[in-house]
Amino acid sequence: MGGSAFSPASVITKSRAQTQAAVLAEDVGCPSSTSEEIVACLRQLPARVLNDAQTKLLAISGPFQYWGPVVDGIYLQEPLAKALQRPQRRKVDLLIGSAQQDGLISRAKAIKKFEESQGRANSKTAFYQALQNSLGGEDSNSFIEGAATWYYSLEHSTDDYSSFSRALENATRDQFITCPIINMARHWAAVSRGKVFMYHVPESSSQSSSGQEFLLDVQYAFGLPFYPKYKEQFTLEEKSLSLQIMQYISNFVNSGNPNYPHSFSRRISGVMPPWPMYLPNDDGDSYKEFTVSLPTLKGLKKADCSFWSDYIRRLRALTGSASNGEPSAENSPSEAPSEGLISPESQPLGDEVAYSR
């Protein structure tokens, strides 16, 4: 239920897709003389072999050695963010959300496992090299890499390896997942494309008690706590939460509003907490947190997303680097960067150099 047209991962270039395929083919021993040979060979390999090879490449090329749609002029004629600029004939209501442990974050965690398997369990260099690689992307910009490395290094100790891992996860999650989703909600509401409702699954509730690979919002929305195979692995509170989330989703599917009653289940008793719309202003950035009490909160990742949507956008403009899939200035959040955020050039070099070497 997440995803955003404003994510840097929404599309990739044809040249990048071809390069990634050639690198993967070489690693698994496929011939790489022609595209036809590469495709034919890769299709014959088991998924496990391809995934293992991709995991190894993550440690070299960054956690977001991702695959994505290519703007080929036929099936996809322009970047998704650009397509959103066209007038829409009819309004479409939007329910969108994110999770602290989104699936892409498992890709960042794969680096840690690979590094440990190579006997480099205490290597912060690998993490920050991976961070810089993933943040640079096809439009690599040393200023942006340095700024992001400095910003996310503020939240941890220089000696704690697990903190390096969290910094990498946080940076990639914010840039590729959470902030683009918030941008999508804000844009959709700002141009009156329809009603917008946003949710978030925090880290404390993102670890599945069932041990399944699906995130909790997916498990709850599809009623996994009531499947005979898994129901003993969920608490009564989690089952109740699942029922309420299914009720919200059912209401939204039927009416475009998760608050409008729809006869879904006799097991639900009482009134559910109201879910306010997301509005395109500073006081309207409400979202529903998918925890037992279903609280309504405001300002999800406001400071971190301001870093990406305001500071980095301005830095990119000043240093002459464009970014594929980024929302234009009028579609990005309008908050000014946090007052405490200082340009990395004005910082002492000691810590930043230590983090990136």
Radius of gyration: 22 Å
Helix and strand composition category: mainly alpha
- CATH class categorisation: Alpha Beta
CATH fold category name:
Rossmann fold
Principal-axis shape equals globular
Distance between the termini: 38 Å
Number of separate helices: 12
Indicate how many domains the architecture comprises: 1
Structure summary, number of beta strands? 4
Tell me the β content: 5-15%
The main pleated sheet reads as: 4 strands, mixed
Q: Taking strands numbered 1, 2, ... along the chain, how are they ordered across the largest sheet?
A: 1-2-3-4
CATH superfamily, called what?
Alpha/Beta hydrolase fold, catalytic domain
Provide a short characterization of the protein structure.
Helices cover 46% and strands 5% of the residues.
Question: Which key terms come to mind for this protein?
Answer:
357 residues; mainly alpha; Rossmann fold; 4-stranded mixed sheet; 12 helices; globular; disordered C terminus
Structural account:
The chain is mainly α. It has one domain: Alpha/Beta hydrolase fold, catalytic domain (Rossmann fold, 3-Layer(aba) Sandwich), CATH 3.40.50. 46% of the residues lie in helices and 5% in strands. A 4-stranded mixed β-sheet has the order 1-2-3-4, with helices on one face. A hairpin with a 6-residue loop joins strand 3 and strand 4. It starts with 13 loop residues before the first helix and ends with a helix.
